[in-house]
Amino acid sequence: MTTLRVQLVNEARDPIVRDSLRLNDPQKILVAGGAIVSFLMLVYLLDTQHISQSLLLGIGLLLGYTLFHARFGFTSAFRRLMSVGNGQAMRSHMLMLAIAVTLFAPILAFGTTIFGGPVAGYVAPVGVSLFVGAFVFGIGMQLGGGCASGTLYAVGGGRSVMFITFIFFIVGATIGAYHLPFWTEELPSFEPFSLATSTGLGYSGAWMVSLALFGLIAWITLVVEKRTKAPKMAPVSSEKGWKRIFRGSWPLFAAAIVLGVLNALTLVTRGQPWGITSAFSLWGSKIANAFGVDVASWGYWQGANAAALNASIFADSTTVLNIGIIIGAFIASAAGGLFKFTTITKGNFAASVIGGLMMGYGARLAFGCNIGAYFGGIASFSLHGYIWGILAMAGTFLALYLRPLFGLSVPKSSDSVC
């Protein structure tokens, strides 16, 4: 752990991280290319899909742009807290969640989207599937170098090894979809539990309880930092004034507010919070189906999910959000002159394969990833979101001892990208 502490303080010495901490000249051709692709995608969605899909593409672009500009991490936030006691990023999570629950409460209470459709938060069962899935995901994100959102925006930023994580994330999510009925139907679980609807508190009462919990967690991180004398996060270069919107780093707390608002906009637009990994299962299943696998017979693709399997991927709102995130991160990285492909070593290749598989499989078992289960679940007042965070933190702790096996014994660029 001493090595982790020293390297966290001096992480800017790493050449990959150093490149991500400085401002270069904008890659104007790439920015223009990203803008053109976004426009063409928007036109296609307007022509072929419901207008909500076009709005979701815009939200996805803003999500990717924000995530990259702030280097807003879930993987690194968990790792920093568990390895050296730094809770700065975790406190930004608490602010993000506070903004989200404040906006989610009236939307969920009202119950309809801006288009008149039903609204429902992510409230999932608590059982063996959740415990195993979240723990496995926690290990996987520390080996794979990024969480679900981090994988998407790191791919958009050109970090080569994350393409490996991305591919095997999809494979793992597809296998998880195939196995999910066993985990959910054959093993013990409790009914979904909501602080708002399962306790009699209502959304106003659940909102107050949630804010108190976030405040408590933030206070605990401050106590841990003081006792461990935790090092601070490395500063990231940025423009001054209004130019900072387009170039360089955003403060974590500013990004936390933006992400909380964007998740609420997602909820009121499509009737569900922001999610990522269900699209990975869809993509992988469609590919498997193209190779002759009888995907339609899987329990996961029965009932309500069957329509998605037979429809265009662009009819899937999560797919559209994911595409927007990748493009948004690409534009943000190019605007900062930071888009470039990086070197892949044997160690991080192997870690990315294993980490991607574990994240995909774990996300399916746990009813979501760091976005759908942790962020979306807690914002929806679901008990499973809090349990997901605890188990993923436990997986992170174990992964700190596994990382050296892959030459990942110290925080490197993953502390800047997720």
From TrEMBL:
It is found in: Cell inner membrane. The chain crosses the membrane at residues 29-46, 52-74, 95-116, 161-180, 200-224, 245-265, 319-339, 351-375, 381-402. The gene is yeeE. Its main location: membrane. GO terms for cellular component: plasma membrane. This is Possible TolB periplamsic protein. It is a multi-pass membrane protein. Keywords: Cell inner membrane, Cell membrane, Membrane, Transmembrane, Transmembrane helix, Transport. Belongs to the TsuA/YedE (TC 9.B.102) family.
